[in-house]
Amino acid sequence: MNNTLENESDNRGEGKSSINFIEAIINEDLKNGKNDGRVHTRFPPEPNGYLHIGHAKSIILNYGISRKFNGKFNLRFDDTNPTKEEQEYVDSILDDVKWLGADWEDRLFFASDYFDQLYEWTEKIISEGNAYVDDQSAEIISEQRGTPTKPGIESPFRNRSVEENLDLFRRMKAGEFPNGAKVVRAKIDLASPNMHMRDPVMYRILHANHHRTGDKWCIYPMYDWAHGESDYLEGITHSICTLEFEVHRPLYNWFVDQIIEGEYRPRQIEFARLNISYTVMSKRKLLELVKDGYVSGWDDPRMPTICGLRRRGYTPESLKMFAEKVGVAKRDNIIDVALLEYSIREDLNRTASRVMAVLNPLKVVITNYPDDLEEELLSENNPEDPDSGHRMLPFSKELFIEKEDFMIDPPKKFFRLAPGQEVRLKNAYIIRCESYELDENGEVKTVFCTHDHETRSGGEGSGRKVKGTLHWVSAKHAVDAEIRLFDRLFIAESPEDVPEGVDYKVNLNPESLQILKNCKVEPGLKGTKPGDKFQFQRIGYFCTDTDSTADNLVFNRTVPLRDSWTKTNK
RNA sequence: UGCCUGAUGGUGUAAUUGGCAACACGUCUGAUUUUGGUUCAGAAGAGUCCAGGUUCGAGCCCUGGUCGGGCAACCA
Length: 570
What we know:
Helix content: 25-40%
Distance between the termini: 46 Å
Shape: elongated
CATH architecture of the largest domain: 3-Layer(aba) Sandwich
CATH topology of the largest domain: Rossmann fold
Strand order of the largest sheet: 10-23-24-25-21-22-11
Number of domains: 3
Largest sheet: 7 strands, mixed
Number of strands: 25
Number of helices: 13
Radius of gyration: 31 Å
């Protein structure tokens, strides 16, 4: 397993990192000697969908805390609803957490591991008169529960005898009743201002096959009943979750109170979930985008899923830096996507090899260069990394440059190629545009240049300065490639923020995917493998897509380079 | 009309828990540069939701408002 999350803190910037409110709570607990000074966190996904960057934040937070406080971190699947959960999701989640570098060591658990214990405890709670079997339908129970402003009323079955409850519960387990016929409810308080305390359901009957326990059970525990107890069984000290569970905390504590023995007690702490501009994060909406074909799948590089980001070219390290910059707090937030992009650029800038790739090729002929001469020119792999070495790039009379790097009638400060103007070809020569040729549509077809042989990079006369430097690729050596350019999936900053009755999908960006077919890349890219990361010089960071083969290279644009030129020209 | 919870530059997050608001992203200058990238130097931008109060002193404490988010699944 990689260990990108291991390093306590990267001290780039040397700033003293301030501590977030959760760490402050943990410090306080430690000071008070709680739980024998143990710190133990967990990440508890439900295997009913793919993980997204919000989960990544949570994983990084929980794992990071376990590292920081010398504690432990568990991965636990909250698999209490067999009607929604599948092995496919378990597998993808395992992959994603592993890829992020969060190490659960030998502590991979499932809430379903605890079904027997939960069942026993339920008998105990029933025996103590604190839970009962209710025969009513979901609709009736819901009605009786009242509303936030109106107290609920008691079920006619609320005061059954312990014996009857026990008997019914055992028969529920034995499969004597159909789905929905009965539930077990905690006996708490129908008048509580907190809806979750109005005799919440602990068990429902579900004759369904579970991905791990098969047909062993036909009753399944509800989240509230299973979660705190699972934490308790695993010795979790700080059970970190998102804000919507804040109202569940009294119930979490109530359930723990029913079974607690001794000093140890898990504690639930809530933080605000991550939101990112121009993105949707809800599982339901992400599923819809996949199911209805708005994207190619869960790992579509435009998706905010972990597998999508991975395919897009994001690194675990970049997501960790992102999570650190975002911070942890309780107020609602919308993080600027620019911060995400900044994070991946920062990582890739120091690690990605610089290569030559031309997205929209324009033929250049060096008229004073020998017809059959071929040179090998020395090229640095990464100026930010002295250890990255060099490689040789073939150069010849005919080249491709980027279409947008030539203009017949350029504006002031266009430091690129134009009639009479000089530019440097990166790692090669300074050339001057002498003329150009149009095709039948009036488009520039070929640009004719002369080169100054004295100016070859690294040579005697290479010191001469020109205003612009272009990337290029030798026409006869170039390799064809398909390049996929991604833009934000939504055009609205808060896509879900739509008027009544309007679907958020109206905010989908129709131009979020652009596929370029006849791109020309340097020959060294021929042997690239999916996941390899590069900087296409002057353009952006790219990675080899999983669709790529030796005969059909496919690259994804992870993120463009910052570009102050097109910006000033808008 | 109930309960829980939050409010600090455009966006996030800080502020030794009472001592005249910091860092990052973004924005804008300028320098360097064989990537209009990187790097470097600098600038603008909040007086901390509002109104009272306590105090020599309040973003931090108190009172009352305002606004935002969450809560009524046999989902998690």
